[in-house]
From TrEMBL, chains A, B:
This is Helix-turn-helix domain containing protein. Keywords: DNA-binding. Pfam families: TetR_N. Residues 5-65 form the HTH tetR-type domain. SUPFAM superfamilies: Homeodomain-like, Tetracyclin repressor-like, C-terminal domain.
């Protein structure tokens, strides 16, 4: 078990290094196998091509981002997270979104893909939800339900609201290049917070 | 003058018909010239390749959508647009956004591109603003400034706020496939309204 898991992680680490160095289009499974120190069949057995490998890599990286966001925001119930409203479920949710956005904006793999190979993101922006988006939706839905219980989030279908929150955060995060001439990172994150707070707050509840 | 304009529009009309029938990748300048009833050099003189032609076509179609949205929303100052808040600049702006979204969701060219060739949209979602996005920003900025005068929109840098509104509407509009299992068209448009109203309203002003 350990070795199988280790090999998979080693291959994904090697894939990340290759993509960060050369880009997705110029990364081959042979390069990745060499860098990971495993045989080519070991890689081919698990991934038919580089596209499938990069998809799994992106999923792993995004799930790790989500995990860290969940840890920070989720533990912030005592209000020590710096966010004025972290004692409420809405405060925790917006703090998690903010933490995730800040990390994503500096993530070498994500920024490389957005800047140089944005067509990789197109499927998950326009056509269908991917694994990490479903994981984000689970977190968001339960955060929204918590907020509907503690009164910090308005009533409404939690799944529908989670979709809107996911797409809003994802869009502002991945379109960094379309706002950076007028909004620096702090300003962008502050505006994202306003979007979420305005959308989620009960009428008159901000 | 008239003939030059007419030729250009005829070529763009032919390009739209080709793309709607065959997709961007399978549309050639030769097909377009034949369908428009003009010579190939006439087309090649103006557009180096099909990608450039489709970019101009998309710009024309999106500017037409914006024009119609501006007409309806802009004239709605007497509140006859059906939106409860159309007497305010914020009401007009959200009514325009709603009208534009509804039209875009049924636009044959746009829906075809989003469903089948989303990589065409990737540049304008992740990398840089295009001509029609700048035109939308002009409309949004002046609507936001009007709202800051009539008190229906909170204070803040109008250009930064216009970017956030543009990206929010664009994202919800183009990611239709990622929400349609839980939000039908009316529900999606209603949620987009909540996003904009919540983001633009002064504190306690909804």
């Amino acid at each position: 078990m350990t070795s199988r898991r280790n090999v998979e992680d080693a291959v994904l680490d090697a894939a990340r290094a290759c993509v960060e160095a050369f880009g997705i289009r110029r990364t081959t499974l042979t390069d990745v196998a060499r860098r990971a120190g495993v045989s080519r069949p070991t890689v081919y057995r698990r991934w038919p091509d580089a596209t499938a490998l990069v998809a799994d890599l992106l999923t792993r990286e995004l799930l790790a981002l989500l995990d860290r966001a969940d840890d920070t925001g989720g533990d912030g119930g005592d209000g020590d997270g710096g966010a004025e409203g972290a004692r409420t479920a809405r405060g925790r949710l917006t703090a998690q979104a903010e933490g995730l956005m800040r990390e994503a904006l500096h993530h070498p793999l994500l920024t490389r893909i957005i800047d140089h190979e944005p067509e990789t993101m197109a499927v998950y922006a326009f056509q269908r939800l991917g694994t990490s988006q479903f994981a984000a939706l689970d977190l968001l839905r339960s955060g929204i339900e918590d907020g509907q219980v503690d009164g910090s989030i308005r009533d409404g279908d939690a799944e529908g609201m989670a979709r809107i929150v996911l797409l809003s955060v994802q869009s502002l995060m991945t379109s960094r290049r379309l706002t950076e001439d007028v909004l620096d990172e702090d300003a962008l994150v502050a505006e994202a917070r306003r979007v979420l707070d305005g959308y989620l707050a009960p009428e008159g509840g901000r």
